[in-house]
C-alpha cells in the first residue's frame, strides 16, 4: 500500500489518488465526490474553508506521461469526503488514515524550531482541543450517515436483483407443486398453463411483499429490510392458485 499521508507545504495531507487506491474506487468518482462537497461548501458560504482544505493540482500518469487533475486534502477535508464510505472495510481504512495523519503531524511538530515553554504548551493544548473537536464532528457525521442508511436508503441495483431472483425462485417452486389435475387445459397447452400460473404467482408475491413492507415497488424496500424481505418471500404461501 502506498503512503497514506505526506507533507505538502508544511502540512500533513493526502490526495484523491490515494483515497481512490485505498478505498478501491475509480479516481474519477473520487474527484466527483470532492467536487460535490466543494459545491456544497460554496452554497453554505464556506468557500474559504474549501479553498484552505482542498488544493486542486495535477499528477503525471506514469505510462502515457499525460497530466491529469487531482486534489490534495487536509485531514479535515479527508474526513468530509470519507464520511460517506461506511462499509466495515472502509471504516478500517479511515482509522488507518487517522493514525497516519497523527503520526505526520507529530513528525512536522518535531521539526519545528522549539518555542518558549509557555507557547509550546499553548500550541499543544490548542491542537489537542482541535483534534478532539474534529473527532467528535466526524463521529457525529458517521452516526448520522449510519442512521440514514438504516432508515432511508433503499436497495441498490445488486440487492434489487437478489430480491427479484428470490421472487422468481419462489414462484417457480410453487408452480411446480401444482398437480396435473389442477390444470384445465389439454396436454398440448400444459406448458402455457404453467407459465400463466407462474406469472400469477409472481404478481401475488410482489403484491403481498409491497403490502408487508409498505412500499409501491420491490425497489423501494429499505436496505435494512432486505434480509426480512428475502425471508418473507422464501416462506410465502399463496392464498389460492387459480
UniProtKB/TrEMBL annotation:
InterPro entries assigned to the protein according to its UniProt record, in alphabetical order: ORF6C_dom, Phage_regulatory_Rha
Organism superkingdom: Bacteria
Pfam families linked: ORF6C, Phage_pRha
Segments forming domain ORF6C: 196-239
NCBIfam families: phage_pRha
The protein's name in its UniProt record: Antirepressor
Amino acid at each position: 500500500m502506498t503512503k497514506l499521508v505526506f507533507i505538502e507545504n508544511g502540512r500533513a495531507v493526502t490526495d484523491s489518488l490515494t483515497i481512490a487506491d485505498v478505498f478501491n474506487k475509480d479516481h474519477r468518482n473520487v474527484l466527483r465526490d470532492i467536487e460535490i462537497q466543494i459545491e456544497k461548501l460554496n452554497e453554505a458560504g464556506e468557500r474559504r474553508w474549501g479553498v484552505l482544505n482542498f488544493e486542486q493540482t495535477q499528477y503525471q500518469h506514469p505510462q502515457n506521461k499525460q497530466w491529469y487533475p487531482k486534489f490534495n486534502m487536509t485531514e479535515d477535508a479527508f474526513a468530509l469526503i470519507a464520511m460517506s464510505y461506511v462499509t466495515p472495510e472502509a471504516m478500517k481504512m479511515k482509522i488507518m488514515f487517522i493514525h497516519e495523519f497523527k503520526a505526520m503531524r507529530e513528525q512536522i511538530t518535531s521539526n519545528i524550531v522549539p518555542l518558549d515553554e509557555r507557547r509550546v504548551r499553548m500550541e499543544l493544548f490548542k491542537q489537542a482541543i482541535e483534534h478532539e473537536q474534529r473527532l467528535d464532528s466526524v463521529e457525529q457525521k458517521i452516526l448520522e450517515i449510519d442512521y440514514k442508511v438504516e432508515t432511508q436508503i433503499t436497495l441498490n441495483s445488486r440487492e434489487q436483483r437478489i430480491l427479484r431472483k428470490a421472487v422468481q425462485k419462489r414462484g417457480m417452486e410453487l408452480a411446480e407443486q401444482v398437480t396435473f389435475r389442477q390444470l384445465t387445459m389439454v396436454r398440448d397447452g400444459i406448458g402455457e398453463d404453467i407459465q400463466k400460473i407462474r406469472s400469477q404467482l409472481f404478481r401475488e408475491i410482489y403484491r403481498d411483499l409491497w403490502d408487508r413492507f409498505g412500499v409501491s415497488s420491490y425497489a423501494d424496500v429499505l436496505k435494512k429490510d432486505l434480509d426480512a424481505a428475502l425471508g418473507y418471500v422464501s416462506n410465502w404461501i399463496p392464498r389460492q392458485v387459480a
